[in-house]
Amino acid sequence: MAAVLDDVHGISADVHELRSGNAVLSVHYGLLAYTDGERFWWTGPGRGHSGSPLLSSALTLPVAAEQLARHYRILRARPAASVLESEPPLLADVILADHVVPC
């Protein structure tokens, strides 16, 4: 995923492997993608009708990369202060709850 984002879309992303063998891809502040190697999930920059974050997913790498690139461009177009002041993505809470052991 990181290679496709870089090669096709010019977006650098960090990959962090989880103890489960799955991975989290940090694309931009507020844009984390989670993958089991076959499917991809992330919380997009938009909100649903109830105001809750919208969970996005894709079953193929090209589709996931294209959608993540689109969400990246949306976040990059926003003023940095508004992105930094926004709530953390819901997906981050799920990942932390499942994969991080508190000290």
Commentary on this structure:
The chain has 103 residues and is of the alpha+beta class. The protein contains four helices and five strands; from the N terminus they run αβββββααα. The chain has a five-stranded antiparallel β-sheet with strand order 1-2-3-4-5, sandwiched between helices. A hairpin with a 4-residue loop joins strand 3 (31-35) and strand 4 (40-47). The termini are far apart. The model is unreliable at 97-103 (pLDDT under 50).
Quick structural overview:
The chain has 103 residues and is α+β, with helices and mostly antiparallel strands. 40% of the residues lie in helices and 28% in strands. It has helices spanning 2-9, 61-77, 80-85, 90-99; strands at 14-17, 23-28, 31-35, 40-47, 53-58.
Which class of secondary structure composition applies to the elements? alpha+beta
Going across the biggest sheet, name each strand in turn: 1-2-3-4-5
Counted beta strands:
5
Question: What is the ordering of alpha helices and beta strands?
Answer: HEEEEEHHH
| Main sheet specs | 5 strands, antiparallel
Helix content: 25-40%
What's the mean pLDDT score? 79
Contiguous runs where pLDDT drops below 50 for at least 5 residues = 97-103
Looking at how many chains there are and whether they match, the oligomeric state comes to single chain
The number of helices is 4
Strand content: 25-35%
What does the overall shape look like? globular
Rg value: 13 Å
Distance between the termini: 31 Å
